[in-house]
Amino acid sequence: MPENNETNKIHYDLTNVYIAKLLTAGETPTWDVPKKLPGAISMDLSAQGDTYKLRADGIDYFVSVSNNGYEGDLNVAIVPDWFRQEILGNTLSEKDKVIVENSLVEPSAFALIYEFLYDKKHRRHVLYNCVSTRPNIAGENKDNQKEADTESMTITASPLTDGNVKASTTEATPESVYTGWIESVWTKDVTVGA
Description:
There is one protein chain. The protein is built from two helices and 13 strands; from the N terminus they run E-E-E-E-E-E-E-H-E-E-E-E-E-E-H. It has helices spanning 81-86, 175-179, and strands at 11-24, 30-31, 35-36, 40-47, 51-56, 59-65, 70-76, 91-92, 99-100, 110-118, 123-132, 151-157, 166-168. It is globular and about 70 Å long. Mean pLDDT is 89; it is low at 190-194.
């Protein structure tokens, strides 16, 4: 790990993507143990929210910006069966071991843990309250090339009831917190101010 005076200047590859099913919401949310989502290729989530401006005295007298979380696409090599069952609510038939998607089943909320590689110290992140659409169905013949097709899902990350949307490590994050980031969902410690 770098010294505290070394700061990141760039980030690149998406890696270490984990999913932790939200078990209980409310004042004290809890999550299941994170599971690795292998084959993460890319993620592009846009900030969601509105800007309200009140014009008075010939100026923007009052400006308010809302934080409604993030929404966008997560692209993976293949969505694993455990994600389809535990998060998307698909079922596995007992005898024939066939996975079944049912339109009456709602997906489960989850925390999305991920990491970007940085030039000095990789930064880890968590989006606390996500839901996912079903992955798109796509395939293409590519003139005898063995270029893989991928699967994409739209992720919506909303605020928890306390307003928290996302948390990220910093260069000053203690090593114990940094290494434990993918073992359980980090929640706000008592030393952090509002």
